[in-house]
Amino acid sequence: MSASSVTIDQRLEQLLVRFKQATVDQPVSELSALDAELRELLDSDEFTQQAAESDESRDQLITLLESIEQTHRELITRAENHSRVVADQLQQLREDRRSANTYTHVRRHSL
């Protein structure tokens, strides 16, 4: 393995670790930055060169990318769930405000 193949593997492994950490910590805020970094790696000449080196290199890259993809799906699922929770909370706050406004309106007119 050449130095460049070790570098791209290490970078992908580090990115995988960061994706996995984001599933534990902050799925929404990290996703776009991690996606951008992944795109940058995939578009790099270094990645293309390693993929062309040998079947073993290509298989190793595929394995890493499959792990990243799975973790990415988990992040998206968590982000979607988070979004639903926030939407539900917002709806509840709106309903509470309407109830409070109605109560205040009825109370003023009954006095």
Automatic annotation (TrEMBL):
<protein>
    <recommendedName>
        <fullName>FlgN protein</fullName>
    </recommendedName>
</protein>
